[in-house]
């Protein structure tokens, strides 16, 4: 697996934080072999920075997302990714509308974590994602969405950041069990 794309709405809150948390978790497990993690938004605020609250919430967890710049989701970004991780079921639908062939590599974050933890597939990260897609069996995800903290005070961003850290760590564990 060489590229993961994280998707939310504006690419200024959830997906920049999730991108940073997932990248850090994968680098801890895989070092230089970790896949590249990027993000985009279904209504990306092209060129905008992450919100001040997202920057602060990520910073409190030791990660700097101040240089992040939002970009809009495009089919070429989906095509380049081996895995697309969405914050909500609506984002997942938007990805598949742009690229129907991406259905087998596109999940909500909570859905993918659940599938990987329940199925416990073995093999490479790509083989694990394929097993998760097969286990989904075409059914719509029923997992909880990651709520949008836009407009919340910092405390709301902290709550979302905590959820994203937990799910990112669990996803990294399921894709690449820690060997260090």
For this entry, give a set of tags.
single chain; 180 residues; alpha/beta; Rossmann fold; 4-stranded parallel beta sheet; 7 helices; 11% strand; globular
Radius of gyration: 15 Å
Unreliable runs: none
Going across the biggest sheet, name each strand in turn.
2-1-3-4
Name of the CATH superfamily: Response regulator
Strand content: 5-15%
CATH class: Alpha Beta
SS elements, strand count: 4
Question: What is the mean predicted local confidence, pLDDT?
Answer: 94
Give the CA-CA distance, first to last residue. 19 Å
The secondary structure category is alpha/beta
CATH third-tier fold name: Rossmann fold
* Fraction of residues in helix: 40-55%
Largest sheet: 4 strands, parallel
- Put simply, the count of helices is 7
Order of helices and strands: EHEHHEHEHHH
Inertia-based shape: globular
Query: How many domains?
Result: 1
């Amino acid at each position: 697996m060489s590229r993961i794309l994280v998707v939310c709405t504006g690419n200024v809150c959830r997906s920049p934080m999730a991108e940073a948390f997932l990248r850090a978790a994968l680098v801890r497990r895989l070092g230089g072999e970790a896949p590249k993690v990027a993000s985009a938004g279904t209504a990306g605020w092209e060129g905008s920075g992450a919100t001040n609250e997202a920057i602060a919430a990520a910073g409190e967890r030791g990660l700097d997302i101040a240089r992040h710049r939002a970009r809009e989701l495009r089919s070429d970004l989906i095509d380049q990714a081996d895995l697309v991780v969405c914050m909500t079921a609506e984002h997942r639908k938007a990805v598949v509308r742009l690229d129907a062939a991406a259905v087998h590599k596109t999940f909500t974050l909570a859905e993918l974590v659940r599938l990987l933890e329940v199925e416990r597939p073995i093999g490479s990260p790509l083989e694990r994602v394929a097993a998760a897609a097969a286990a989904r069996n075409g059914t719509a995800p029923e997992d909880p969405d990651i709520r949008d903290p836009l407009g919340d005070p910092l405390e709301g961003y902290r709550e979302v950041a905590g959820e994203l850290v937990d799910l990112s760590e669990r996803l990294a564990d399921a894709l690449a069990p820690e060997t260090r």
